[in-house]
Amino acid sequence: MEILSFDEIVNSIPFEEVTHPETKETSIMTVHDQKRELASLARLISRGHAGYPLWDTSVKNEFEERLSDMYNGLTE
Questions:
Q1: Is the pLDDT of residue 76 over 90?
Q2: Distance between CA atoms of residues 76 and 69, nearest Å
Q3: Residue 65 backbone class (left: φ over 0; alpha: ψ -120 to 50; beta: rest)
Q4: For the segment 8-47, what is each residue's pLDDT rounded down to a tens digit?
Q5: What is the pTM of this model?
Q6: Which CB contacts under 8 angstroms, 24+ apart, belong to 24-31?
Q7: Residues 32, 35, 37, 43: what is their CA dihedral angle, to the nearest 10 degrees?
Q8: How far apart are CA 72 and CA 38, in angstroms?
Q9: Dihedral sign, CA of 49, 22, 70, 4?
């Protein structure tokens, strides 16, 4: 299993996949869909959240580490 860093996760999906069409599907998300959503969230926050560059370094590091762990399946 390849473990990706936060930056690799942010860059792991094409930009077009960030927006998803609304569906009426009620099935459980696949692992792939969950990873795509996490990567989209990471990208949105790191590139789109106006305050992200102002976050305290320790908060930013913890956020990036926790999101990376979730993406890589290292947390419960």
A1: no
A2: 9
A3: alpha
A4: 988 887 655 545 556 656 567 788 888 888 888 888 888 8
A5: 0.68
A6: 31/73
A7: -140
A8: 10
A9: negative
